[in-house]
Amino acid sequence: MLTPGRQICPGPISRRSLLQAGALGLSSTGLGDLLRMRAHSAPAAGVENDTSIIFIWLPGGPPHMEMYDMKPDAPVDYRGEFRPIPSVVPGLDVCEYLPLHAKLADNFTIVRSVAHEFADHGGGHKRFLTGRIPATPVDTVNDSPMVGSIVAKVREKRNLGIPNYVSGADAGRQDIDVFAFGSAYLGAETHPFSVVGDPSAPKFEVKNLSLAREMEGRLDDRVALLSGLDRIRRHSDARGTMHAVDEFNERALTLLTSDKARNAFDLSQEPAAVRERYGMHPWGQRALMARRLVEAGVSFVTMVWENCIAPGQPMPKELVYNWDSHGVNCHMYKDALVRFPIYDRTVTALVEDLYRRGLDKKVLLVVTGEFGRTPRLNPGIGTQTGVMQPGRDHWPQAMSFLVSGGGMRTGQVVGSTNARGEHPKDRPLTPNDLWATVYRHLGIDYNNTAFPDHRGRPMPILPFGEPIAELL
């Protein structure tokens, strides 16, 4: 978790006015502090270009054999209850409860042959999100930086009037260590700007970025406050070595009052029909916000999709909060009957919108969780229902994910698993191959980019992996 970095300077300006002038937050770190930390970091590496990533994270582990890698000819205790349907792409079948995917399959690719060795959520999160073998197989505190932080580090000099790295999650789930989003030795300056809560809520607002309407008339006061702080700096340090209220606060104020930033986060500017196409629920509006953010120039946007229940509706006892579909957590098929149509609508709306708006070369979309589910059904007595119900446990030995855009080849399946969905058969891949593809899209030289760890040792941003050739 980020630790407070702001120091309050006593004097003629009140603490309250100081907070009004500069208390911009990324977790508990002010934006001025964040910019300061970034400027004191090592020079950026890599090649700059106008490309972005939307990374949709499905914590818990989506069931690959219920979604993108169905095995209708496998024994019943493997294949489960759902059936595949053909898509517009021959050989790319999807679940019968993903019909919009089937119609749009020529605009995305399904990768079916990724595997790793970490079956715990913590180890799986760390393994997948960092591209490294984690020091421990459990917990979600990173010893290596999440890829989003690496991108933020490489592009730290980019200043477009909007944060370079943004994440969105449910309230109470925004802590940097909930999903192994930590930056490890890269430091807090590479953490994402966090958007917390439900963007579909009528009174939703992005905290600590936009000026609230009632504050707009007080902008001159904020500028005056910064001028006052600048006078304190000059009187305190005539040599100009004190940086408490220098360019970083000015840049923080710029972001605070930036029309570009404010507009990018403002979903009310979207036509009602577009918002409804995505879906008026947290997943849908986070996806729409992600599209707006990359269109405005954000380099890396991570949106977390956990709870699929619309605001104000109770969660049925057969369902689970995220994608962790053990029998003890949920009735996997009843959960999917609610979850899959929402997922189907939102993913396809995002893919469709990226292409419709001409963002399909600039933006690479990745949709994935940390692993798949056991090929063989593993029923359990539900903790909420008290009855035996179908489910699947964790399974990192095989998983599927979706990619779209990025100027990549689409309308195909990459790789395969064996007849029971247990492990890769053709074209075995690892999460690192995905990240090599992501870095290539962003113009980052992953073979020759490294940053020092806590001991000063240069750590390559990706120790192994190659871009997925079928996508290029």
Gist of the model:
The chain is an alpha/beta fold and 472 residues long.
Notes on the protein architecture:
The longest helix is centred in the last third of the chain and has 25 residues, at 332-356. The protein has two domains: 14-43 and 211-265, no CATH class; 44-187 and 194-209 and 274-471, 3-Layer(aba) Sandwich (Alkaline Phosphatase, subunit A), CATH 3.40.720. The chain is built from 14 helices and 20 strands. It has helices at residues 15-22, 31-39, 64-67, 76-79, 99-104, 121-130, 147-154, 219-236, 247-257, 259-265, 272-278, 282-296, 332-356, 431-442, and strands spanning 25-26, 29-30, 52-57, 84-85, 94-95, 109-114, 165-169, 193-196, 300-304, 363-368, 372-373, 380-381, 388-389, 394-395, 399-405, 412-414, 416-417, 424-426, 450-452, 458-460. The strands form seven sheets. An eight-stranded mixed beta sheet has the order 8-7-9-3-10-15-6-16, with helices on both faces. It has a two-stranded antiparallel ribbon with strand order 1-2. The chain has 472 residues and is an alpha/beta fold.
Radius of gyration: 23 Å
Strand order of the largest sheet: 8-7-9-3-10-15-6-16
CATH class assignment of the largest domain: Alpha Beta
The total domain count is: 2
Task: Identify low-pLDDT runs.
Answer: 1-47, 210-217, 235-248
Beginning-to-end CA distance, first to last residue: 37 Å
Give me the CATH architecture of the largest domain, please: 3-Layer(aba) Sandwich
Q: If you average the pLDDT, what whole number results? A: 85
- Please report which band the strand proportion falls in: under 5%, 5-15%, 15-25%, 25-35%, 35-45% or over 45%: 5-15%
Task: Please tell me what the overall shape is.
Answer: globular
**Individual helix count:** 14
Q: Write down the CATH topology of the largest domain.
A: Alkaline Phosphatase, subunit A
Helix content: 25-40%
Largest sheet: 8 strands, mixed
Number of E-state strands:
20
Report the structural category: alpha/beta
